[in-house]
Amino acid sequence: MDGPLHERIAADLRHRIASGDLAIGSALPSESQLCDQWGASRAPVRQALAALRADGLIGGGQGKPPVVRSTAVSQPFETFLSFSRWARDLGRTPGQRTIEIARRAVSPEAAEALSLSEGEPVVELLRLRLLDGVPVMIERTTFVWPVGRLLFDHDCDTGSIFAYLSGQGVDLARGRHVIDAVNADPTDAELLEIPAGAALLRERRHTSSAAGEPIEYSDDRYRPDAVSFTVENSQQARPALLRTQGLVS
Amino acid sequence: MDGPLHERIAADLRHRIASGDLAIGSALPSESQLCDQWGASRAPVRQALAALRADGLIGGGQGKPPVVRSTAVSQPFETFLSFSRWARDLGRTPGQRTIEIARRAVSPEAAEALSLSEGEPVVELLRLRLLDGVPVMIERTTFVWPVGRLLFDHDCDTGSIFAYLSGQGVDLARGRHVIDAVNADPTDAELLEIPAGAALLRERRHTSSAAGEPIEYSDDRYRPDAVSFTVENSQQARPALLRTQGLVS
DNA sequence: CCACATAACTTGTCATGACAGGTACGGTGC
DNA sequence: GCACCGTACCTGTCATGACAAGTTATGTGG
Predict the structure, then answer these.
(1) Measured between CA atoms, how close is B109 to chain A, in angstroms?
(2) Helix (H, G, I), strand (E, B) or coil at B205
(3) Domain termination site, one of A68, A91, A118
């Protein structure tokens, strides 16, 4: 009862795949069957299938009905911005424990990331993220003041910060994510319940508005036995992960 | 004079964008104009435009003709498969030192990755990769035997293995890359000239042919101060990096 | 029993036509 | 001069119809 027909068809198929109604490896209904079910022509049906194909949910080729390839691959943008959203798409229960939220002068590292002058006020948030109750990630986020101040009116342990800020009119449009590895410092080790010095997967996230104004900078550290990053690529479909080079000291 | 009509239209537009004929920021011909130019209906024209849009080459919205957004879309595929190619694209000099190349029975981990039975012969390659003479990555690759055997006729210290295998008719069409972090073991530490236990960025690479037959499996460990991975994403163009979940023990 | 040809089914591609909704521009009334 | 409105144009969406090309199952002849 919402948007265009092809979106409704795609949403329905997504739902049926996520719910297990259409098991992985099984064939989808043929185009003509979908046309009958929806009383639609082939155009919207094919558009819906193309959308799922672009998301890597289904595969298959000419002459064969499409096949369910993977169960959960959601919109990578929101997925990458919102831990809560990502966890729920996976069927897991996200959790969080806010260790501290503070207004203080910006740190040198964040100042460079956010293009701020030294000493400007920002909001720093330190959160422990849980998956089904297990600590898997520690998040050190710095928000620019105009955005971060909104967080003091929000219970950070309850909902998704990303969803909350979106509702407040903050447009998180672009993100840059630098992925590397670090050894756990004592704080990391204690909160993540791992030995000090263990290797952690780190994602440094720069999020900015559509206009390019910096919004937040975050240093997220994952337990590598709990979370990893995956890239799928083929010669045809174009992925967007780049291997970049840091300083070679 | 090749493939389907929509591919020819897309290829022509790509070419005109790359050549600068259609400058960045300028508007593309409208759909009806393209229909006239090609004597085609709107279906193939729209399919071509959708392809460019998926590549992030063009943007725009309802009511307005599409606008050229970017001129270049890098081919991350080869970049991700070939260390040599990547380094040269960056203007660096790639180097390599082959520590050992051996034919032996497949290890349990590689057996699962390559869908081989235990005990089957494979070719294992251990290489140290250099950037401007500095060790930055250690590569433990397992090739299935039919492919790996070709490597004994090749000087692994000279050229790109990827380029060599491509020339031999091996089609490396699809790749899956799982990125996480590990502590350096004694071998890693010695070869990469870092302390034992240091955090390393690990990429486990599964490469397969277009038909889906496994070709190689590799465990690559990067010095995180030398190499990191970067993702750029925006709400419009859809990137292909996924955050996936491992076992939470 | 097996190899092979055929038929049914499926997706890929494309033409034609139509309407809805957004944008941009010019003209009109104030 | 300025706000407002209508019109022309554009893209988004969808129906209908058709043919090409690939896959699968079936049936037939050897």
Answers:
(1) 16
(2) strand
(3) A68
Q: Are strands B134-144 and B214-222 parallel, antiparallel or unpaired?
A: antiparallel
pTM of the predicted protein model: 0.69
DSSP code string of A141-163? EEEEHHHHGGGGGS-TTTS-HHH
Cα separation, A66 vs A47, in Å, equals 13
**Which bases of chain C are contacted by protein, using any atom under 7 A from a CB?**
9-18, 21-24
pLDDT band at A219 (very low <50, low <70, confident <90, very high): very high
> In terms of residue numbers, what domain contains B18?
5-68
A42 beta carbon to strand C: under 7 Å = yes
Q: The domain that contains B198 carries what CATH number?
A: 3.40.1410.10
**How would you label B105-138 residue by residue, b for 16+ Cβ within 10 Å and e otherwise?**
ebbeebbebbebeeeeebbbbbbbbbbeeebbbb
Beta-carbon pairs below 8 A across chains A and B: 237
Give yes or no for residue B186 having a pLDDT over 90: yes
Q: What is the Cα gyration radius of chain A?
A: 21
| CA atoms A64, A69, A72, A78: torsion sign | negative
pLDDT band per the 50, 70, 90 thresholds, residue A235: low
Tokens at residue A134, please? 């297990």
